[in-house]
Amino acid sequence: MDELRYPHLFEPIRVGRTIFKNRIFASPNGCQYQNYGGVPSEEGIAFYERKAMGGFAAVTLGECIVDSRTGQAHSYQLLLDNPLGLPPMSAMANAISRHGAVASVQLQHCGMFSHLVYERGGQLLGPVDTAIPDIHFTNNDGHEVAASPDGLRHVRGMTEEEIEDLIRSFGKAAAFVKQCGYGMVQIHAGHGWGLAQFISKNVNTRKDKWGGPDLENRMRLTLAVIDRVRKAVGPGFPIEVRISGAECIDTGYDIDEGIAIAKMLDGKADIIHVSAGHHESQYATTITHPGMFQEDGCNVKYAAEIKKHVKAPVATVGALVEPAFMEEIIASGQADIVNLGRQSLADQDLPLKARMGREDDIDYCMRCCACFSNSTRTRRRACAINPVTGHELEERSGFWTSHKKKVLIAGGGIAGMEAALTAARRGHDVILCEASNELGGVLKCEKLVPFKKRLDEYLKRQARRVKEAGVEIRMNTPVTEELAKEIAPDAIIAALGSTPVKPTIPGIDGSNVFGAEYVYTHPECTGENVVILGAGLVGIELGIFLAGEGRKITLIEMLPVMNDGGNMVHMNNLLLQIEEKKIEVKLSTRAVEIRENGVMTEGEKGEIFFPADTVIYAVGQRSRSDEAIALGKYAPEFHMVGDCIAARNILSATSEAYNAARDIGRIG
Ligand SMILES: Cc1cc2nc3c(=O)[nH]c(=O)nc-3n(C[C@H](O)[C@H](O)[C@H](O)COP(=O)(O)O)c2cc1C
Q: Counting atoms of ligand 1 from 1, which one is nearest the CA of 290?
C-alpha cells in the first residue's frame, strides 16, 4: 500500500494523554442486555466489542446513569452507582480496549425526564418547578402505569443541596468508570436531558446562580460537573462533552447560543461533541436522528460553525455513512472527529473496510430507523441490513458447527439473497433460483425513489456478493416441485416472498387503476390528482414519492390509524413528510367504488367522493406460504424465511434468512 486512502480520517488525534488511532468514533447507541441491577451482560459486552473490532477509534456506551435514585429514565440504562457493576463494566472496558479502541462511557442524568423514578413513586427533579405531560401509559418495560390524576407529571426544582449532590454523583461515576479501565468519559449535556435542561433558557428560569436569563448561570452546573469529573479522573484523561449545537425546537436555543455554550466549554472539555435537537419533540428528534429524507451529514453545519469559535477538537455526528464524505469533513476543517451512530450498527467494520479500500463492501445505513424502533419496543439492538447486530455473541459462538450440504434457495429477494450468502460463506454448495430475471425481490421496484437510494445500493451489493460467494444462480427459474425433486438438495430455504393484494372493489380493473409496485417503476403513469388506497408503509412512502414528483395525493385508509409496520421512529419522519408535502389522509374510510374520475368511499361521515385521475392500491401483501410449504417435502432440512411466512419487513427477512442458513448442516 503506497498511501492511506483517507489520510485525514485516519490521522491519529492526540487528546490529553490519549492517542486515538483515527477520527472515526462510535457514537452512543444506548445500552442493552443488562443484567439485573443495570450492569452489562455478556451480550452487551459483545455488542460494543464488535464495534471496537471493526476499527473504531473510540466506542462510547450510551446512557449510563450517574444517580439511579434521581436520574433514571428507564430500566435498560447502565447504572454507574451500582458497585456490583465493577466486574462486568471492567470486562466491557477490556473487551473494547483490547482491540485498540478507547472505551468511553456517557455520563447521563435524565433530569425531569427520569420517568422510571416517577413510575417507582419518586419525585421528578429539574431546574424549576414545572409539569410535563403524562403520556407514558406504559413504562419502558411495557407494563401499564397508572395515569396521573391531572394528566401531568409534576417536577420539583432542585435545591442547592440536590444540585451539589448531582455534581458529586457525576464525579463519583467518573472515578468508577476510570477504575473500570475506560479511557474517556462523555458528559451528556445535549438532547434535552438533565444537564441540557439547566442550559436551556426556556426551561431553566431559576432566580439563583444556577439559572435565569444569563447563560453563565445556566452553564454553571455543566461546568461544575466538568470540574468535578476532572478532579475524579485527573489531568490528561479525555473528557468529551456532548451538546446540541441547536435545540431545534421553538422554545429552545439556536446555533448562536450553541456557539456561546461551546465557547464556555472550550478549555475545559477536551472534545466538544456537537449533536443537535431535542428528544421531546417529534420534529427535533428527527434532527438528532436524521431519517432517510435528510441529506447525508445534515448536522455537520452545527459543528462547523462551532469549530470556527473554539480551540478544542470538535466532533460531529448525524447521518454520516460514506468514508469519502467523512474525509472531506475532516480535511476541510469542519470538524476534527466524526461519530457514527446507526452506521456503526449497519456495519461495525466500516473503519477497517475504509482503510483497506473495501468501500464497495460497506453496508451503508439506510436510515430506516428499524434499529431505533426495535430498541424502543424490545430493548434489543438490531439492524435491518445487518443480521449480526444485536447477536454478536452468537456470531462468534462455536455452537453452529457445520457439515457441508447442498442447499437450494427458492427466491432471490432480500431473504433469499441473505440466506444464499450466509450458507455459501459457511461452506455449503448453494443453488439460488429466482423466478424473474433480476435478483432483489419486491423492493427492487423502489429504485427510482430518491429517499430509497441506499436500499437500492444494498440490493445491488447483496446481488454482487451472492455471485462472488460462488453461489450457483439460476435466473428465470421458479422452484417447481419437479425442479426441487431433480436437484435433490440436502436443505431447502423457501424465500418466495409475497404478492400484492388486489382489492375486490367495483372499478378495480379500470384503466386509471394501478398497483403500487407498478407505479413505483412507472410514476409517469399517474395523473396530477392521485388517490392511494391503503395508508401502510408502502402507500405512505409511495404517496411521498409521488408528491415529490408534483402529484396531489390523498391517502385513504379503512382503519382508524395509519400502519407504521412496527417502525414508529420512521413513522415520525413520514408524518413530517405528509405534512410538508400536504398529503391528505382520510382514516376510517373505505373505498366502495372506483370510477373514471375518482373514488366513492364510505366513512364515519357517510359517503364521500374523492375526485382523482389515478387510483393506486397499496392494501398489503399476501404471503406465498402455500407454495413455500409445498417445497418442504423435497429436502431433509427445510426452512421458510421472510415474507413467505407473513409479509413484514426487511429486518425480519434478513434475520430469519441469516439464522436459517446458520442452522443448516449442524447434523451431518
Ligand atoms: C438505537 C439508538 C440508540 C441511541 N442511544 C443514544 C444514547 O444512549 N445516548 C446518546 O446521546 N445518543 C444516542 N443515540 C443517538 C446517536 O448517538 C446519534 O447521535 C444519532 O443516532 C445520530 O447519528 P447517526 O445518524 O449516525 O445515527 C442513539 C441512537 C440510536 C439509533
A: 25
